[in-house]
Amino acid sequence: MRPFHIVTYGCQMNVHDSEGLSGLLRAEGYPPAENEEEARIVLLNTCAVRARPERKVVAKLGALATRRRAGTLDVLGICGCMAQEHGEALLGEYPQLDFVCGTGNLSAVPGLVRSALEGDRRAVLDMAGDIDRGIPRAHGSRFRAYVDVIYGCTNFCTYCIVPRVRGPERSRPMAEVLDEVRRLADAGWVEVTFLGQNVNAYGKDLGPGAPRFPDLLEAVDAVEGLHRVRFTTSHPRDCDEALLCAMAGLESVCEHLHLPVQAGDDRILRRMNRGYTYREYLDLALRAREVMPALSLTTDVIVGFPGETRAMFEQTLRLFEEVRFDSAFSFVYVPRPGTTAAAMADPTPRSEKVAWLNELARRQKEISRERNQEMVGQVVEVLVDGLSEGDPGNLAGRTRTNKLVVFPADGSVREGDFVPVRTTKAKLWGFEGVRASGDA
Ligand code: SAM
Ligand code: SF4
Ligand code: F3S
Fold first, then answer.
1. Which residues contact 31 (CB under 8 A, 6 or more apart)?
2. Which atom from ligand 2 is nearest to the alpha carbon of 161?
3. More confident residue, 131 or 334
4. Looking at 71, 90, 124, which one is the last position of a domain?
């Protein structure tokens, strides 16, 4: 059988979808290739959220066209959000492509590969169909696993393409999620990350009386053998006292909240359709820290939304000073086709927006380092991922707060182990440490 390789762009949801694509192809007997060059089947699992990931895919398609012409590649397919957005037109534009597969049609891929080998070129883009359930997953780790709990997004932030390419919010029934988690825990997985573009909206679409996200957390906390539960991404609009209390009270639920703020100015937040104000976000962040003093709070922010002025941007800077996030992903606004914001007047030059972004990122780096500095000397529980990529003399792992810790390798510790580590030095990305005795 021909070996396959999947190139993944974008968010954790795409990473998890690629685990599904890999599981489906393995179940058909296709082996994973050692590397991309040796693969005879290549799938690009794409992202459309900003222009840069799209450009990367276009460059990759160019490189793979050369392999197609040289006869070293038999099947080339495109999946994910760019596939959903551009659809069948991609087949016309890129003759090197055999198929286009939308975000709701993972299980169509083995059939698409088969027909490609018979010379057929096809697009499957039926987002209205049922979501793929129960497909085999080739998990990237033997002890940390992603679990989908809600698909799509119905928030329609005015800048965002995700609702167009992932469809409306659809929660999985709680029994199905719990069943998957129990099977993972029975097979030795110790950490799960619940996934959703708006994960804390879980259950809202299931009707009145249906379990909501805090109920799901409570139920999963009771699963034997599971040590850590994470989730991403939370929307401030759906982050309430019940969620904060569940996080604080449930032992397995980790003290990390990724809570994208996107902007600090109320007028910009309104134009973004985010559904909260500066004050409301700040109160929520402070309350979260009050109920969970050890909480790591991280965020996403967009700089240079249409109509944003220097004074408005300064509100974002001010909010960052007040909240003191543990870390932040910051992006310069880019218009996305078909979104409401793409039609808004946007007079600020990009160079100015980039300067603002750099200013914000510089300040956030200082804050991240300062926050980590405050934790130096503490003993933290680390789930070991394996040898450190940069330094194979060290092991690397994550704290409950999702911070990276590296510490000297020691023959008795293996990947998947929980070990107490004393932090000795703060870094931007986390800590250096040494193994501590006793419990974390
Ligand atoms: N669902 C999450 C949320 O509500 O924040 C994440 C959505 S998106 C996959 C990840 C991040 O990309 C967003 O939080 C936002 O900061 C950024 N983003 C989305 N659309 C963008 C755009 N048009 N320009 C720049 N950044 C964008
Ligand atoms: Fe996009 Fe907003 Fe939905 Fe996040 S909540 S995926 S930013 S529309
Ligand atoms: Fe990108 Fe799609 Fe995720 S647009 S960020 S891969 S949901």
1. 1, 3, 4
2. 1
3. 334
4. 124
Single-letter code of the amino acid located at 270: R
Q: How confident is the model at residue 392 (pLDDT cuts 50, 70, 90)?
A: confident
Q: Is residue 183 part of a domain?
A: yes
Distance of CA 77 from the midpoint of ligand 3 (Å): 17
Q: Does one domain contain both 267 and 158?
A: yes
Whichever domain contains 12, its CATH number is 3.40.50.12160
CATH code at position 366? 3.80.30.20
State if residue 339 touches ligand 2 by the CB under 6 angstroms criterion: no
**Residue among 302, 325, 353 to mutate when testing ligand 1 (max atoms within 8 A of CB):** 302
The ligand 3 atom at the shortest distance from the C-alpha of residue 81 is: 2
Report d(CA 53, CA 78) in Å as an integer: 14
pLDDT digits (tens, 9 = 90+) for 234-292: 999 999 999 999 999 999 999 999 999 999 999 999 999 999 999 999 999 999 999 99
- Indicate if 289 and 264 belong to the same structural domain: yes
Residue 58, both tokens: 């276009």
- Of 63, 91, 124, the residue at which a domain comes to its end is 124
* Domain shared by 79 and 96, yes or no: yes
Tally of domains within the chain: 3
Render pLDDT for 9-62 as a digit per residue (tens, 0 to 9).
Answer: 999 999 999 999 999 999 999 999 999 999 999 999 999 999 999 999 999 999
Which residues in 351-369 are b (16+ Cβ under 10 Å) and which e? Answer: eebeebbeebeeebeebbe
- Give me 41's structure tokens: 């089947």
Vertex 303: Cα angle to 300 and 308 (nearest 5): 135
Give the Å distance between the CA of 156 and the centre of ligand 2: 6
Mutate to test the pocket of ligand 1, among 46, 49, 332, 354 (most ligand atoms within 8 A of CB): 49
Give the Å distance between the CA of 273 and the centre of ligand 2: 10
